[in-house]
# Entry
Amino acid sequence: MAFLTETLETPISVRFSIALTTLVTDVKNYRQYSKTVAELQKLSSRELDDLGLSRATINTAATKAVYGY
# Structure
C-alpha cells in the first residue's frame, strides 16, 4: 500500500523526469559497454593475456568496468 500511496502522491511530471533520466543513463552505460567490448576485441590474444583477460572474458570485463558488477 505504501508504494501505491507514494506513486499517487508523486506528480506525473516528476515520475516522467525520473524515468527519462534513468533511460538516458542506461543508454549511456550501454554505449560505453559496447565501446569497451569493441576496443577489447581489437586487441590481440597476447595483449589480452597481458591484461589478464581472454577472449571468453571480454564481456565479463566490460560489464564490470561499466556497471561495476
Remarks:
- The chain is about 80% helix and 0% strand.
- The helical segments are 2-9, 12-42, 45-50, 58-67.
